[in-house]
Amino acid sequence: MSLLDPISHALAAVVAATHAGLTALGTDPDSGTTWLLCLAAVVVAVRLVLLPLTVHGVRQAHAGSRARPQLRALRKQYGGRTDPDSLRAHAAARREVSAEHGLSRLGCLPVLLQLPIWLGLYHLLATVADGTSAGAMDGGLVASLGAATLLGVPLAERGYLGAGPAHLAVVAGLAIVAAVLSFVTQRYLVAPNTVTDDLPETVARVQQLMPAVSALGLLVAGGAVPVALLAYWVLNGTWTLGQSAVVRYLFPTPGSPAAHPGG
């Protein structure tokens, strides 16, 4: 039994319930459209579960921006002072500033909590695509996914190379769309809404490269994952783009380029 099984089984229940509902409405249980709608339901369910973490992240970004001038002044005040009393005083002053602005000590924990969900979904789709049942996705649903196609390409298929140019076009097209969505989101929505003034030069450069690195990673992974997961990445990337646009334009981080007119 995998540690990801509880998460995978919860996601499987969402897929199974959506598939049953769509089938009851008269859709073809083995059609690609039905299965794409099931994947869309997973996107909605997962992103709604993660919404409180997203709100927390936005609030922490705003709190960090408000606290930045005071933290910068403390670094300047205690810079070069390494005696125990100064170190304790610096730490105490930082705690006071953090408490004043509501900065969480958990740091990036909300982001880390998302990783098991992403891994659980990959585990589920990879398992089912290989013909093995998982949780509520029994043998019937596994066979149904195995029969489903997207523009003639089986959703359970893997890799860029398959049954001719059409297969390559569909798989590469999905991977490219997912990569473009990721690049546009990070480069034009997330990056302008991030304050990098106090970051070390090396870290700032890494952040600048992240949109391209992330997009390249999706293109590479596209040749190894099931087509169903590629479709999920496109659907999820569309949600992420929309959500990031709302945050950038309606709740910009103070001090970031997005917070300034024309930023």
Automatic annotation (TrEMBL):
Main location: membrane
Membrane topology: Multi-pass membrane protein
Sequence intervals crossing the membrane: none
One GO CC term on file: plasma membrane
Keywords: Membrane, Transmembrane, Transmembrane helix
Superkingdom of the organism of origin: Bacteria
Sequence similarity: Belongs to the OXA1/ALB3/YidC family. Type 1 subfamily.
Protein name: Membrane protein insertase YidC
